[in-house]
C-alpha cells in the first residue's frame, strides 16, 4: 500500500512542478493553463499573485507525483480564484492523489478567499473519468 501526502513544498518544487505539468499536458496534447512564465518560475507568477501550489508526494522518499495550482485573478477590481492546473503522473492516477490535491486547494480557498470571491475550474473533455 502506498502512502501519499499533500504539501505546499516538495523536493525541488520548481523542477517538480515543471516536470509534472509538462508531462501531463503533453500526454493530452494541451498547453499548460498557467503559461510558460509559471512553468519557468511558479513562485514569480503564481505565488507572487497570491495563488497556491500543492504537491502530491508519494512514500517516505516524498517523490512528487502530482500537483495542483490555484491562481488568484484580479480584474476590474474583482478577485476570483481559478484551479489552473491539476496533474497527476500516470502511474499514480486513481489512487486518491487528485482528491487529496483538490481537498487541499478547497481548504486553502476557504481560508484565503474574501466574501463574494468565486472559484472556478475549466475541465477538458479529453480527460478520462
From TrEMBL:
Signal peptide (UniProt feature, chain positions): none
A Pfam family per the record: Acetyltransf_1
Lineage top rank: taxon: Eukaryota
A GO molecular function held by the record: acyltransferase activity, transferring groups other than amino-acyl groups
Organism: Spumella elongata
PROSITE patterns: GNAT
InterPro entries: Acyl_CoA_acyltransferase, GNAT_dom
Domain N-acetyltransferase: 1-129
Name of the protein: N-acetyltransferase domain-containing protein
Amino acid at each position: 500500500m502506498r502512502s501519499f501526502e499533500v504539501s505546499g513544498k516538495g523536493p525541488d518544487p520548481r523542477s517538480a512542478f515543471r516536470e509534472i505539468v509538462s508531462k501531463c499536458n503533453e500526454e493530452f496534447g494541451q498547453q499548460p493553463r498557467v503559461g510558460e512564465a509559471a512553468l519557468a518560475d511558479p513562485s514569480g507568477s503564481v505565488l507572487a499573485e497570491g495563488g497556491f501550489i500543492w504537491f502530491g508526494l508519494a512514500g517516505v522518499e516524498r517523490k512528487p507525483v502530482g500537483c495542483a495550482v490555484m491562481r488568484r485573478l484580479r480584474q476590474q477590481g474583482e478577485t476570483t480564484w481559478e484551479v489552473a492546473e491539476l496533474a497527476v503522473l500516470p502511474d499514480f492516477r486513481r489512487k486518491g492523489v487528485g482528491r487529496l490535491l483538490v481537498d487541499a486547494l478547497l481548504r486553502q480557498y476557504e481560508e484565503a478567499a474574501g466574501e463574494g470571491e468565486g472559484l472556478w475550474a475549466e475541465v477538458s473533455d479529453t480527460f478520462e473519468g
